[in-house]
Amino acid sequence: MGARCFTVRTFGCQMNVHDSERIGEVLVSAGWAQTDDEAHADLIVLNTCSVREKAEQKLRSLVGTLRPARARGAIIAVAGCVAQQEGERLLATMRHVDVVIGPDNIAELPALVADAEVGAPPVVRTTFDLDEPRFLRVAPTGHVAPATAFVTTMKGCDERCSFCVVPYTRGPERYRPSDEIITEIASLVARGTREVTLLGQTVNSYRDPSSSTSRDPTHGHGSSEGESEFAALLFRIAREAPALARLRYTSPHPRHVGDELVRAHAELSVLVDHIHLPVQSGSDRMLKRMIRRYTRREYLERLGRLRAVRPQSSVTTDVIVGFPGETRADFDETLSLVREVGYAQCFGFKFSRRPLTPALRLDDDVSEEEKSARLTELFEVQETLTRESLAALVGTRQEVLVEGFSGTGADAPESPRQITGRTRRHEIVHVTVSPDAPDLTGALVTVHVARANKHSLVGELERLSAPRPDATVTPVARRRTRLPVVSV
Ligand code: SF4
Question: How many angstroms separate the CA atoms of 376 and 354, rounded?
Fold first, then answer.
């Protein structure tokens, strides 16, 4: 009899993508095999996101569609933020669910599933690991390394942005010791990973639990303005993993952009030329109601300092439109800020009321039509900026980290093939190569940018700047195409 198969469906942000990979790893370690074929999976895990509206209703209808799978004996597990937020209530309303498991309990999944397989009643496990935080790492030594990888630095969030459910579904901030982070990165790099993205809800509020300042109870975890120990972590990674080609991080909070982080951007060539700095609104009145704890002027000043030391950096952001009380004038301030910064990309969302959040007390007084109209307007402004930003790169040379083959010709051996990758600024680049070109996945290549599409670049291969270090690099997962839905 072959190994039992599982499949994971992921919703939401990169943190969830990362968690899904860890879910896969703990199951594989327990003897399960991963499959894309949900129709024959013995275990179906739904890794949910509660940031957007109606998450629970959507989950309920999704679970309804799994009734035939349940009827043939498949186990259904609900993980992620909806699981954490709803807990027992999910079991009460969704009779086809066997296991409800929170983000901090992933390691317990194989045992809970094993119990379910022998007839144990449905179970909920959603306890935050406050005393001894556990950070599941990328597959241990010996496994194939991806060309790019996420590495967790912290979990939870101590901010209380009034629109956001994350502090309630992910708990308070808990930090991973820097030794553990460095060890994981070194192991990835040794096995061929070229780019690491450090992950955290407010990644730049990081404090090293093993350092003396962090053990000082007066030091104020996550609450102090400006400096954290995040920049020190960046310097240490650069020093102790010198073969790493690129280092990214997401998502920073503007109020933790301090002198040391600016210095890191000035001095560390391993840091990419891309800053994702969520702003949410250009109106001070809205920023205050959102409890963002910075003003428009402060945001621009901090971003300006990061840009001054790395002028070639692209800048991207997140914006919420239609927050309670947002007037046309407030929204115009957001548009003016978007134009002033000249973002390369902007991820816009309509405000929606989330359970447990402070904004529930505010009157959701911007109509749905108006929210939609503002979002459309925001996207129109951003389309122009994105076009300009991409057009400015035509004729330049860019270093591209090849992530794998994209559609064209990938399945037809005789036709030219197209490889795809990202610049240091995070633009997607497509390059046509001959049918017999070697697999360049994981290689750094120099590309001459020939033209700009609406959301990507088209380039010509000039040279291989740095081949992949060994043959164990696997293509980057295609799902990693955007920045987080949940960010600061
Ligand atoms: S938006 Fe970000 S910083 Fe604010 S509460 Fe949510 S996760 Fe925390």
Answer: 22
- By most ligand atoms within 8 Å of CB, the mutation choice from 161, 199, 347, 486 for ligand 1 is 161
Is the distance from CB of 429 to CB of 423 less than 8 angstroms?
yes
* DSSP H or E run through 349: strand 345-350
Residue 488 CB less than 6 A away from ligand 1: yes
The per-residue pLDDT for range 91-149, each reduced to its tens digit, is 888 888 999 999 999 999 999 999 999 999 999 999 998 888 888 776 555 566 789 99
Cβ(139) – ligand 1 distance below 6 Å:
no
Q: Is the CB of 166 under 6 A from ligand 1?
A: yes
- How far is residue 215's CA from residue 195's CA, in Å, rounded to a whole number? 31
What domains appear along the chain, each with residue ranges and CATH number?
A: 5-125 (3.40.50.12160), 148-391 (3.80.30.20), 397-466 (2.40.50)
| CA 174 – CA 206 distance, rounded (Å) | 9
Which ligand 1 atom is the nearest neighbour of the CA of 487? Answer: 2
pTM above 0.90, yes or no: no
Q: Give the type of residue at 334.
A: T
Concatenated DSSP letters of 314-330: EEEEEEEES-TT--HHH
| Mutation choice for ligand 1 from 81, 155, 157, CB with most ligand atoms inside 8 A | 157
Give the Cα separation of 485 and 370 in Å (integer).
22
CB atoms inside a 10 Å sphere around CB 440: 22
Q: Look over the chain and give the mean of its residue pLDDT values, rounded to a whole number.
A: 88
- The contacts of residue 207 (CB under 8 Å, 6+ apart) are 175, 213, 214, 219, 221, 222, 228, 229
Take atom 3 of ligand 1 and give the residue whose Cα is closest: 488
What pLDDT is attached to residue 98?
95
Give the Cα separation of 400 and 461 in Å (integer).
10
Cis geometry, peptide bond prior to residue 251 (ω within 30 degrees of 0): yes
